[in-house]
């Protein structure tokens, strides 16, 4: 299944979006133009995770954005939404059998074209590379270069996500080197108001129109 995947890919963070900020800040990101939202919550509180993910699915439907669940194929299957899998998160083909036929499944490829080759063979809907810059959220993620991004663009006919330390200042160079989507946590959500989230989301989104 092919999808038109391009634009801002917002990822939630349980610390930055604590204390009632999750829904208003995510709504602001969607209002500002985020096309994809990933629910990334590493806690073991299954009931809260289900409630939050359901609320996010409703919001995404309202803004015709796509919801992706990080790591958890059961939750994605239950909500009939997409899934993001890292290298330690289980088999992509096995997940495919549990999800709707048009569910988006993305794969972490770090900084390795070989991982991307495998993900493409496994039927991934997008390939995620990074971190490209210093990441406050995941400082130890393997570093990827702009040269790798250019090579991936030339080699794969699949949407490419760039992640890791993406800011309003460095976003343009990632798009210019072949990124179809920019996945952002800190630069989008480390602010004190929903209005500022919306402003930042709009600024990221407008870059896709001009590149
Ligand atoms: C869009 C996107 N790209 C990469 C990741 C990282 O996934 P993973 O390597 O499994 O690490 P965690 O996010 O699970 O800590 C991602 N989540 N989203
Ligand atoms: C999940 C993940 N994988 C590689 S970097 C990263 C974190 C991205 O967050 P930030 O935009 O705050 O650097
Ligand atoms: Mg993971």
Offer a quick outline of the entry:
The chain has 211 residues and is of the alpha/beta class. It has helices spanning 22-31, 46-62, 73-79, 92-98, 113-122, 146-155, 171-176, 186-189, 194-210, and strands at residues 7-11, 36-39, 66-70, 82-85, 105-108, 126-129, 160-163, 181-184. The protein has a single domain (7-210), classed as TIM Barrel, CATH 3.20.20.
Distance N terminus to C terminus? Answer: 26 Å
**Rounded radius of gyration (Å):** 16 Å
CATH architecture: Alpha-Beta Barrel
Here the CATH topology equals: TIM Barrel
Overall pLDDT metric: 97
CATH superfamily: Aldolase class I
Envelope shape: globular
Bound molecules: ligand LCLJCK34, 4-methyl-5-hydroxyethylthiazole phosphate, magnesium ion
Q: How would you spell out the order of helices and strands?
A: EHEHEHEHEHEHEHEHH
- Give the count of helical stretches: 9
Estimate the strand proportion: 15-25%
């Amino acid at each position: 299944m092919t999808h038109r995947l391009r634009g801002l890919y917002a990822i939630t963070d349980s610390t930055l979006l604590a204390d009632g900020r999750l829904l208003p800040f995510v709504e602001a990101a969607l209002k500002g133009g985020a096309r994809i939202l990933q629910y990334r919550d590493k806690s073991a509180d299954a009931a809260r995770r289900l409630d939050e993910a359901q609320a996010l699915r409703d919001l995404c439907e309202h803004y015709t954005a796509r919801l992706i669940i990080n790591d958890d194929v059961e939750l994605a299957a239950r909500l009939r939404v997409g899934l993001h899998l890292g290298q330690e998160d289980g088999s992509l083909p096995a997940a495919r059998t549990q999800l709707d036929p048009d569910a988006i499944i993305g794969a972490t490829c770090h900084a390795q074209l070989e991982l991307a080759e495998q993900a493409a063979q496994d039927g991934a809907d997008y390939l995620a590379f990074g971190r490209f810059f210093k990441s406050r959220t995941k400082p130890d993620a393997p570093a990827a270069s702009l040269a790798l991004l250019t090579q991936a663009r030339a080699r794969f006919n699949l949407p490419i996500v760039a992640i890791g330390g993406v800011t309003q200042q460095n976003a343009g160079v990632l798009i210019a080197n072949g990124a179809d989507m920019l996945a952002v946590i800190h630069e989008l959500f480390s602010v004190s108001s929903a209005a500022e989230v919306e402003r930042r989301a709009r600024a990221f989104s407008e870059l896709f129109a001009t590149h």
